Amino acid sequence: MKKWMILVCAFLLAALTACGGGANGGKADNASSPQPGESASAKAEGGKKKLSIWHIETGVRQELLEASIKEFMKAHPDIEVEAVQIPNDAYKTKLSVSMGGNNPPDLFHSWGGGWLKQFINAGQVMELTGKIDTGLYLPAAIGNATYDGKVYGAPLLMSLTQFFYNKEIFEKYGIEPPKTFDELLAVVDKLKTEGITPIALANKTKWPGALYLIYFASRIGGPDVFTEAYERNGRGFNDETFVKAGELIQQLVDRGAFNKGFNGLQYDTGQSRQLLYTGKAAMELQVSSYISNVQAEMPGFEKKLGIFPFPTVEGGKGSATDLVGGVSPVFSVSSGTKYPDEAVELLKWLTSKKLAQQMVDKAGVVAAVKGVEYRDEYTQQLNEMLNQAQHLQTFYDQTLPPALAELHKDTTQALFGKTMTPADAAQHMEDAAKKALGK
Amino acid sequence: MTSDAPNIRGRNKWNKGLFLLCFLGPALLIYGVYTVYPIFATFYYSLFDWTGIESAKTFIGFDNYARLLGDSVFHRTLSNNLILVVASVLTQIPLGLALALLLYAPIKGVRLYRTVYFLPLLMSTVAIAILWTFIYDPTIGILNNLLADIGLDSWQRSWLGEPDTALGAVVATICWQYTPFYMILLRAAIAGIPDEITEAARIDGCTSWKSFTRITLPLIMPTIVTSCVLSVIGSLKYFDLIYVMTEGGPDSSTELMATYMYKQAFSKFSMGYASAVSFSMFVIAFLVALAILSFDRSRSRGGA
Fold first, then answer.
1. Is B260 among the domain residues?
2. Among A125, A341, B78, B155, which is most buried by a count of CB atoms within 10 Å?
């Protein structure tokens, strides 16, 4: 009797493990269980060509992307596409490991700039010059995936950075959106006397705070200051622009503009957005995907939000129309793909005006593809900002080579935490830039 | 007959050896491939300058290790790891022992407490990290609000946001997570003490304190030493909670060797340097384990 029981239990255990493993491997386009080893090899199963694509989209954007992929498969019955969604932070690690293990997906997401360049230098990305029509995309966007005139990726959407503010709170206390830094300080003071945290900030992952440094540098030194420092033909990272930018950040910190403990709060889990939802904070400087986060977390709250551009700095060379933003997603093709022509077909499909239009209509984003119509108030505002912009500064941490990008984030977080002086932070960046970029 | 005996004995020994090999073989093979080989591979990779995303590598000898010796962030991680080791050994094991003794007292409802105190070990590390991140939240977290309620407003801090308090806060969470493990381990050890000894002590009029220090403690000492080794090695390798709660920040105040290695490998594309960090971790943990075990051996040879 006992032996029989043991045998039954053992059999059940084996059956459960087999079922669990089978279910995971069998799902072709499920978001929750990425199996890189299996998806990466494009084998011809039953005559079908298999392509794999890795992306980081969530929510509505993910739904639209995967619906588009299904349409592609209908239009191309001989191609099967497996889409794998990986959360943002884990994505960078996973892709690096798969590249290093010579096991990469056929199509993959990136943000262009310095991070994609790493893979290009390692010979892992297929060159797309001549294979896609670069005229379909906004110059600033496709420029982010072009290196020395060679194109390595195609963009779909863009991200712009601006202040989001609670219109109700501003109305209640008779506050107007500030246009200059001094006006911003006045708004900060006024909100503080009313017991409201002026600006919400969750800076554990370091990039939300970096947005301030990038904007201040652009406003103070003009839009070219970063390019000069990056290309080593003009002002360096230790130029007084960057020092002053650090000083203004610390001025905001000293003024009590931010919530307590910002360097320990996690943006992705919503610790800063919570402060706005509960009415404890009035503003937040963030990228345009903020709205879709709000829509998902507290539907309806987005109607209370307005946007205003980053204020100008008196005596600065930059203007209020210069924007900071990024391009995401940029899709690229691995150089080792077994089906290059099919992969490029999929690439063109996924960066088409059709998908871009759907995204704009339903996900509140700005497209990197030309000819898209903007029909709702929020995206119209963003599009107007983009059209008026003379210059779009891409996020430093997505433009610089990785080691320098990390240093930029580390030093900026230290500026916020007041454990480093602006002069030191700027000098560290310049020293590292000399080593990494030369001159 | 007698001349055959050595041959038979020899053959038996050979058979026995073969027999053992058949049973140990598979496990030894897996151990060799997945544990021993990677250690040598890590050392091999640490001699190169390698991005980790292509097969091309440049041999640079021991340059990575030279860089390691001068790296101030690495020194910070060493001291952070040391703080974690000391805090773990001095908190988790004594507390675990205390709980092991207290939670088996014959009082009503003690089973419920046993379950409750055991729960931290059952939660996934990431769940614990997110839970405690919200507890430590400076504006809405229950820790700061509790301090305000009992009038200790001045003790409120941004626990995870300030370099001074971040390490302490995370170490406290780590201890919360692992104390139940030692509670169970030490309870098993205490249960292993024969009843006759404790009964004899009671008959002879031994006080419970004397009974604890003269009987229980010496008899569970081997388990305590094992717990120390586990705690020290675990603390030297620790990664999970730090990575999710603070990512090594703010400003490297909670950076550990493991998180530093991870960043070098996957954010900074310096796989060679990360391998050097990793191999150094192995060497340090290995030496410490040797030290503890040899200390214990000399103690047990000298004392008992």
1. yes
2. A125
Partner residue facing B251 (CB), from A123, A269, A414: A414
CATH number at residue B167: 1.10.3720.10
Chain A residues close to B271, C-beta within 8 Å: 100
Q: Give the pLDDT of chain B (304 residues) as one tens digit per residue.
A: 556 666 777 778 888 888 888 888 899 999 999 999 999 999 999 999 988 888 788 898 899 999 999 998 999 999 999 999 999 999 999 999 998 888 877 788 888 888 888 899 899 999 999 999 999 988 888 999 999 888 888 888 888 888 888 999 999 999 999 999 999 999 899 888 888 888 888 888 888 888 888 888 889 988 998 899 999 999 999 998 998 888 887 888 899 999 999 999 888 888 999 999 999 999 999 999 899 888 888 877 765 4
With beta carbons less than 8 A apart as the criterion, state whether A290 and A284 touch: yes
Closest CA to A59 of A438, A284, A427, A365: A365
B77 burial via Cβ count (<10 Å: 0-12, 13-18, 19+): buried
For CATH 3.40.190.10, list the domain ranges present in chain A: 30-156+329-351, 159-326+384-437
Taking contacts as CB-CB distances below 8 angstroms, the residues of chain A near B161 are: 260-265, 417
Arch. (CATH architecture) of A159-326+384-437: 3-Layer(aba) Sandwich (3.40)
**Within 10 Å of residue B190's Cβ, how many Cβ atoms?**
19
From CA A248, how far away is CA B249, in angstroms rounded? 23
B10 found inside a domain:
no
Contact B270 A403 (CB under 8 A): yes
CA distance A66 to A432: 41
pLDDT digits (tens, 9 = 90+) for A370-381: 889 988 888 888
Residue A206: list chain B partners with CB under 8 A.
Answer: 249
Q: Quick one: tokens of B260?
A: 């530093």
Count of residues for chain B?
304
Domain, as residue range, for B269: 72-302
What is the residue-wise DSSP string for A74-140?
Answer: HH-TTEEEEEEE--HHHHHHHHHHHHHTT---SEEEE-SHHHHHHHHHTT-B---BTTB-GGGB-HH
Query: Which fold is adopted by the domain A30-156+329-351?
Result: D-Maltodextrin-Binding Protein; domain 2 (3.40.190)
Cis peptide before A329 (omega within 30 of 0): yes
For residue A415, what is the nearest residue in chain B, using CA coordinates? B251
Q: How far apart are CA A364 and CA B123, in angstroms?
A: 37
- Candidate from A99, A274, A417 with C-beta closest to B250: A417
- Nearest-CA distance B303 → chain A (Å): 46
Of the candidates B133, B158, B249, which has its C-beta nearest A260's C-beta? Answer: B158
Torsions phi, psi for B127 (to 5 deg): -60, -45
A351 CA to chain B: closest CA distance, Å?
Answer: 26
Q: What is the per-residue pLDDT across A175-234, written as a single tens digit (0 to 9) for each?
A: 999 999 999 999 999 999 999 999 999 998 899 999 999 999 999 999 889 989 988 888
> Would you call A400 an interface residue with chain B, using a CB distance cutoff of 8 Å?
no
Is residue B178 one of the residues assigned to a domain?
yes
CB contact under 8 A, A118 and B140: no
Look up tokens 């381990």; give the residue: B185
- Start-to-end C-alpha separation, chain A: 81
Strand partners, A406: none
Q: How many independent structural domains does chain B possess?
A: 1
On whether residue B15 sits in a domain, the answer given is no
Rounded CA-CA distance A206/A202 in Å is 8
Nearest alpha carbon to residue A337 among A51, A60, A127: A51
- Nearest chain B residue to A95 by CA distance is B53
